[in-house]
Design goal:
By secondary structure, the chain is an alpha+beta fold. Helices cover about 40% and strands about 35% of the residues.
């Protein structure tokens, strides 16, 4: 089975909040690894922001 994308939404007060972006990217990678370990194919990961 395939998962097209894993999307994490974050709210940024400014584009310079890199730590939030890094945390979201790390979360996405962990989620991707978890799903792949369960036998799913994950096509992409994304981060959606309010900025």
């Amino acid at each position: 089975m395939k998962i097209r994308t894993i999307t994490t939404g974050i709210s940024l007060e400014s584009p310079q909040q890199r730590e939030k972006i890094y945390q979201a990217a790390e979360f996405n990678q962990k989620a991707k690894d978890l799903f792949e370990h369960q036998g799913y194919e994950v096509q992409t990961t994304r981060i959606a922001t309010n900025s």
